[in-house]
Design a protein that fits this description.
With 151 residues, the chain is mainly α. 78% of the residues lie in helices and 0% in strands. The longest helix is centred in the N-terminal third of the chain and has 19 residues.
Length: 151
């Protein structure tokens, strides 16, 4: 039957295929694979598993790339609630997620919320000791500049 579909390697493969389509800017195709992975991970791993949360973040990223920021934010915030109890805040995936949330709030013109997550991102970047040449540090600085210019 479908026992193989509940194997972690199968859902990882679905996520990897989704990532390939995402890198090719084929967001609708990527979303199909991410959503299938999400469904199977929920069954196999449960709601409070970091791999399930990472898939939620992937789905949020697709929605963000499609400029569906409310849908993106919904997935990012659900991911955050899981990450907060399953991984360390210094984990690179956590840093990326906080950046994604700040960006989604900014795109939705919810500037106080964007600022709140930008502040969280600043703390996270400092905790991780990321240098100024780091990609996440650069992303943080760009978003900070855009928010500062809104005043």
């Amino acid at each position: 039957g479908d026992v193989y579909k509940r194997q972690p390697s199968y859902t990882s493969t679905l996520n990897n295929i989704g990532s390939v389509y995402k890198s090719l800017n084929q967001y609708d195709r990527a979303l199909v694979f991410y959503l299938e992975s999400k469904k199977l991970q929920l069954l196999a791993l449960g709601e409070f598993h970091p791999k399930y949360a990472a898939t939620l973040n992937n789905i949020g990223s697709i929605y963000s790339n499609q400029e569906k920021f409310n849908e993106a934010l919904e997935h990012f915030l659900k991911c955050e609630s899981i990450f907060r109890i399953t991984i360390d805040e210094k984990h690179p995936s956590f840093t990326t997620l906080i950046n994604n949330i700040a960006g989604a709030y900014y795109k939705l013109e919810k500037f106080p919320e964007a600022r709140e997550y930008l502040d969280k991102l600043a703390i996270n970047v400092r905790k991780r000791g990321l240098g100024q040449d780091n990609e996440m540090f650069q992303s943080f600085k760009k978003l900070e500049q855009r928010l500062t210019n809104r005043r």
